Amino acid sequence: MKQRKAELSQEFQAHDWPSLREDALNHLTRLTVEIDDRSVGSPGNQKAADYVREVMSGHGWTTEQQKFDALDWEDGAAQLVADDGNSFDVFAGPYSQGCNVHAPLVPIANLAELERAQLSGTHILLHGGITQTPLMPKNFPFYTDEAQQKIIAALERSGAETVLCATDTPPMIEDGDFTVPSVFMSAAEGARLTSFAGQQLHLTSHCRRIPSSAANIVGLMNDRTKKRLVVTAHLDAKKGVPGALDNGTGVTTLLLLAKLLDDYDGPYCIELVALNGEDHYAVPGQVAYLAANPDLADNVVLNINIDGVGYIEGDTAYSFFELSDDLEHIAETELLARPGLCEGIQWPQGDHSMFVQSGCPAIAVSSNWLLENMATQAVTHSQLDQMTLVDPDKLVRNVLALTSFIETVGQFCHQPTVS
Fold first, then answer.
1. DSSP conformational letter for 390
2. Nearest Cα to 99, choosing from 172, 223, 257, 206?
3. CA–CA dist 405, 329 (Å, integer)
4. How many whole angstroms separate alpha carbon 375 and alpha carbon 161?
5. Which residues of 84-118 are buried (b: 16+ CB within 10 A; e: fewer)?
6. Running DSSP on this structure, what letter comes out for residue 241?
7. Which of 257, 261, 298 is nearest to 274 (CA)?
8. How far from each other are the two terminal CA atoms of the chain, in whole angstroms?
């Protein structure tokens, strides 16, 4: 293994590292600084999609768009004021409808209270145990939680005017299909608000839903062949968040692969896919991709999904899902043997999951620090997720490793074993 690592270190030096590093920084600057909002359906999202398509086309890739309808959303100030003049700090729930409602307050701490209370025409205040876990969107296509579905159904049939969520892990509700206007506040603010049970409060929220559209961007090389090796990274980010690690670095990796694999002529079609929707409540890009590819298990030999690479601390991690012995051997020699790269834990919160669920082997690529701190880190989905947290040299190291891996998989694809 030491000899292999030495060989690979020399291989790295043979590439134009400074040029790739500059490309990485240029792509990341365009995606996360010059474009300030990549949320699905937004103008910035369309600019980012156009940029990806232009770069891929410039490297000789055939490009396609998979268009779909999507809901954009505009935030606005929210105010909650009691009739006695007391005010409370509240924020519009993402993808909620706006409202202007004067109604009494009813605190609710669990499902039993929710199901038996008289709530028609009220503000429901969710607090305590019922707020411990954010609600999955009610129509989320890849996962359903029966207990959460009961909460959502009870809220929607309650006749309540609004839902107020008091939680220190906001937002509790992020769902453009949810029918009741919602806002959120801190748990401490919610505790103060509970003393106003039964009193009249006036809630105004100036957010609005905006019907829009978006598209996945697909780049194809060697598309005369049916069997495909698919590399994915989600293009979108949370509303108003720079999204450098989540997932500007993943899209940057796709664009660097487009450059390094521009002369690929192996046995597979290489498909680079900028999926548009991983951070959107309805994952519309993923749904559109599956609709366009109903036969994934028959045609996809491997998915490589890139999400969260390049964090300034720790190694780049490769997590393996249902790999054949041959693919695992190649991964060990072409990925794990390289300095700064390691095997990561299996994690389901990414676009590789839809391939695995469809019966395809997959490799998920991320930063090991993010995997190890997944439950507690406060970087992604926040304003902290900026270029200052990205090490561009890690992006170059990763993309060179992936290029070698993809080329090696092609060389050995027709052999029953790899020696």
1. B
2. 206
3. 11
4. 33
5. eeeebebbbbbbbbebebebebbbbbeeebbeebe
6. -
7. 257
8. 15
Q: Answer whether 61's CB lies under 8 Å from 258's CB.
A: yes
Strands (E), 39-122: 62-74, 78-82, 87-88, 91-92, 99-108
The average pLDDT across 189-217 equals 97
Q: With beta carbons less than 8 A apart as the criterion, state whether 248 and 31 touch.
A: yes
Which residues are within 8 A (CB) of 13 and not within 5 positions of it... i.e. 6 or more apart? none
324: region left, alpha or beta (phi > 0 left; psi from -120 to 50 alpha): beta
Query: Rounded to the nearest 5 degrees, what angle is found at the Cα of 418, between the Cα atoms of 415 and 419?
Result: 130
Helix (H) or strand (E) holding 396: helix 392-412
Residue 7: pLDDT band with limits 50, 70, 90: low
- Does residue 199 sit in helix, strand or coil? coil
Question: With 0-12 CB in 10 A as exposed, 13-18 as middle and 19+ as buried, what is 401?
Answer: buried
- Give me 330's structure tokens: 């190649």
Residue-wise pLDDT tens digits, 294-321? 999 999 999 999 999 999 999 999 999 9
Beta bridge partners of 390: 311
Helix H segments across 175-280? 187-193, 249-260
Token couple for 313: 């601390």
CA distance 112 to 165: 17
Rounded Cα–Cα distance for residues 326 and 318 (Å):
16
What whole-number distance in Å separates Cα of residue 291 and Cα of residue 274? 16
Say yes or no to pLDDT of 267 above 50: yes
Give the sheet arrangement for strand 87-88, strand by strand.
Answer: 87-88, 78-82, 200-205, 99-108, 123-126, 162-166, 182-185, 91-92
Distance CA 149, CA 230 (A): 33
CA-CA distances (angstroms) from residue 207 to 71, 176, 269?
Answer: 13, 12, 44
129 contacts 148 by C-beta, under 8 angstroms = no
| Preceding peptide of 242 cis, ω within 30° | no
Q: pLDDT-based confidence at 15, cuts 50/70/90?
A: low
The size of the chain, in residues, is 419
95: left (phi over 0), alpha (psi -120 to 50) or beta: left
Cβ atoms < 10 Å from Cβ of 37: 19
Using the 8-state DSSP alphabet, how is residue 328 labeled?
H
